[in-house]
Amino acid sequence: MALNLRRLRVLREISQDNLALEANVERSYVGFLERGSKNPTVTTLEKIAEALSCDISEFFVPVADDLITIKPLKSGRKPTRG
Fold this sequence. Notes:
By secondary structure, the protein is an all-alpha fold.
């Protein structure tokens, strides 16, 4: 589940911060889920799936060996609001 969550988030170019905001969960919790340190409830999975515009089942599909290493999103400062 953890790897698929990260894969889907990076594929959609959504930061952990923005995913957490959209799913109404703590940003650190998204990090825990992506590392497999925490197990989410079904309710949390529903929120995250909705924020990623995907079905919950996509979190549980087998991951191909070539996707084991997922490149991170480009880092940098968030644009300032003027």
